[in-house]
Amino acid sequence: MGAEGSKIKEPTPSSGQFLCWAESLILGLGIPSSVWVISKLISTSIPAAVHGSPEQRFLFWLSAGVIVEWLFVVGLWFVLRLRGLSFRNIGVWRLGTWQAWVVALLFASLSIASNLRLLPRMQVPISNAFFPHGFHLAAALTMGITAGFCEEVLFRAFLMTQFAKAGYGKTMQVFVPGLAFGLAHAGYLNQGFLVWLGIMLPTAFLGMMWGIAYLLGRHSLVPSMVAHFLNDATALPWILFFMVTMR
Q1: Cα–Cα distance between 51 and 24 in angstroms, integer?
Q2: Is residue 177 in a domain?
Q3: What is the pLDDT, as a whole number, of residue 7?
Q4: Backbone angles phi, psi at 2, to 5 degrees
Q5: 165 inside domain
Q6: Which domain does 194 fall in, by range?
Q7: Nearest-CA neighbor of 247 among 190, 200, 185?
């Protein structure tokens, strides 16, 4: 075989654009679909997931999302390896710039403040969001670490990099992965359409803001990872605990 025949074809711009849109759908719709399947398997095979204590029911509800997100990250690791890349190539371990930290933490703070206002309605002291203990501490750490690492790797580092490689401008790099990030929270549809919409839209917006932080940090993920951890490890676990166990 000649030298020309042995060359590996480089992806064309059109194929790269198709790929990043397909990956957006896989993440935006595939994650909640997988969570639904795993949740059904758990609820049908483990009685405590349906009839257990509030803590047990919340634990099994949470475990479905945790399992799925880490499986997606493992799958991404293999995909990157096949492409001769690693997490380092998409900025996972980069510390970023001060501008990135300011933007990431600012919008995390606004989100946390918005969530905190709901705790008194649930008769939960606001201090519990920052100083949980026992079961709630474990739930907060599990949620914060999983969301802060897995979702940022998938939607910011990977998906935004894919849109950049496909030739899209910064607006599309931020907007579409942010929208996919919001759609990935479709698991809340079981709480009702309006509840889901009230969660999806702010989540998508927050994802876009962290996407801007990712770009401001010159493709560094640590600022948004830390911000995402703080957002999901404070008031949010209490809100979700109430939603899941008080239905």
Answers
A1: 36
A2: yes
A3: 42
A4: -70, 170
A5: yes
A6: 13-245
A7: 190
Which two structure tokens, joined as six digits, stand for 60?
A: 């099994």
Is 6 part of any domain?
no
Quick: pLDDT tens for 122-180: 999 999 999 999 999 999 999 999 999 999 999 999 999 999 999 999 999 999 999 99
Exposed e or buried b per residue across 65-87, where buried means at least 16 C-beta atoms within 10 angstroms of its C-beta: bbbbbeebbeebeeebeeeeeeb
Residue ranges with strand state E in the chain: none
Mean pLDDT on 7-17: 60
Structure token digits, residue 82: 């096949």
CA distances from 45 to 36, 60, 183, 208, 223 (A): 14, 11, 28, 38, 39
Q: Are 80 and 91 in contact (CB under 8 A)?
A: no
Please give the mean pLDDT across all residues of the chain: 90
Alpha-carbon distance of 90 to 157, in angstroms, equals 5
Closest C-alpha to 112, from 246, 22, 233: 233
Interval 75-99 mean pLDDT = 94
Q: Is 116 left (phi over 0), alpha (psi -120 to 50) or beta?
A: alpha
Q: Tell me, yes or no, whether 2 lies in a domain.
A: no
Count of CB atoms situated within 10 Å of the CB of 31: 26
Q: Is 233 helix (H, G, I), strand (E, B) or coil?
A: coil
The total number of structural domains that make up the chain: 1
Residue 214, CA distances (Å) to 49, 111, 159, 170 in order: 37, 18, 12, 11
Q: Indicate whether 191 pLDDT > 90.
A: no
**Residue 224 has which token pair?**
């948004």
